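User: Watch each token:
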Amino acid sequence: MIKTMAITGGGGVLCGQLAESLGQQGYAIAVLYLKQKAADKVAERIINDGGKAIGVMANVLEKPSLELAKNIVNEKLGPVDYRNLNALYFC
């Protein structure tokens, strides 16, 4: 059974590489990022490499945004088995 992993900050360089690597290991990846286009680009690379992934816009500082992201991921990939929380807020 394929395990699903949600990666916040997944549209950035470091976390995007993490997402791609985990996609190569057989995880279904939910790439969560503040900018939809960046999340989609990482998901597209995973898919082109034979993996399963979706890009999802999510703002980790806004609960409604995370709830919507969770619903999208659950609908398209199923329940999340693992979370890798990388998005940071610098003040």
